[in-house]
Design brief:
Layout lengths: L13 H6 L1 E2 L2 H14 L2 E6 L4 E10 L3 E5 L4 H9 L3 E7 L2 E7 L3 E5 L2 E7 L4 E4 L7 E2 L6 E10 L13 E13 L3 E7 L10 E9 L3 E17 L5 E10 L3 H24 L1
Antiparallel strand pairs: 1-9, 2-3, 2-5, 3-4, 4-8, 5-6, 6-9, 7-8, 10-12, 11-12, 11-14, 12-13, 13-16, 14-15, 15-16
Length: 268
């Protein structure tokens, strides 16, 4: 059953800024294209009073997006004079919100429309459904991701397919929940991209043994920069289609750790 997502402007917390902000142009363009293709409703807010019109995204490209104009000529005029436009819609049952600084009147497919420039960032405001357990650096979990890469010196041809080598990339997991895992890696170790899916991942738990999962890269957040100028990054990943046994192992591990941390705080 589809949930009813209110198209109101969300006040963003610091956590939202870190967890929900998307800056990958490729990902932003894909989300806006999906919204336009699905015909999902949107609310366009303008001026300091946050007045709005209901609209839809008609189309989008790498430069911007076209949205329907309102029925009122006065409202449409005020929108073109506004220097802050907030558009709220939904994508795959998750609220989406972004801000641009202008809306110009154009014609799309023979009908009046607004053209909005492509936003520099976009927020997918999916509220956390799982408790996230942060792990001390001494207890970071070991995550192995199965990566297929072309063999060095091997070029594809019509006669022979490209030969691949399979490598286990080892990454540390700094936090985990029933819905995903936060990996940490140094710049240059491996370049993750939001939207990528890795189907063969193994996370090692000292107490319960390994689990095998598929993960979707959701976001990449810089954490700190070392003296050599390299950045430590957190790669937020979502588990895909976790089975009941794996979910039970995750919950048991998280519950046990919570209990140990609570006991430790009481004895200090």
């Amino acid at each position: 059953m589809k949930k009813n997502i209110p198209l109101t402007i969300e006040s963003l917390t610091d956590a939202d800024e870190k967890e929900c902000r998307i800056i990958s142009m490729k990902q932003i363009e894909a989300i806006l294209h999906d919204i336009a293709t699905s015909g999902t409703n949107a609310a366009l807010y303008y001026n300091a009073k946050r007045e709005f019109i209901m609209t839809t995204i008609l189309d989008s490209d790498e430069d911007g997006l076209w949205v329907e104009q309102g029925r009122s000529a006065t409202e449409n005029h005020h929108i073109t004079e506004s220097h802050k436009i907030t558009l709220v819609s939904s994508h795959n049952q998750v609220k989406v919100q972004f801000v641009v600084n202008s809306a110009s009147r154009v014609t799309y497919d023979g009908h009046p429309a607004f053209f909005l420039p492509i936003p520099a960032s976009l927020y997918r405001l999916q509220r956390r459904e799982y408790f996230r357990l942060s792990l001390p650096s001494s207890e970071h979990l070991r995550c192995l991701i199965n990566i297929a890469k072309p063999k060095e010196g091997n070029a594809p041809s019509d006669a022979a397919p490209l030969e691949m080598t399979i490598t286990d990339l080892e990454i540390r997991a700094a936090d985990i929940s029933g819905g995903g895992v936060g990996l940490v890696c140094m710049e240059g170790e491996f370049e993750f991209e939001p939207g990528e899916i890795y189907t063969d991942c193994q996370i090692e738990f000292p107490e319960i043994g390994p689990i095998h999962v598929a993960v979707l890269v959701k976001n990449i957040i810089p954490l700190s920069t070392n003296k050599y100028g390299k950045t430590l990054k957190r790669v937020g990943c979502e588990f895909i289609d976790v089975d009941g046994q794996t979910s039970g192992k995750l919950q048991r591990f998280i519950t046990d750790k919570q209990r140990m941390m609570a006991t430790s705080s009481l004895t200090v």
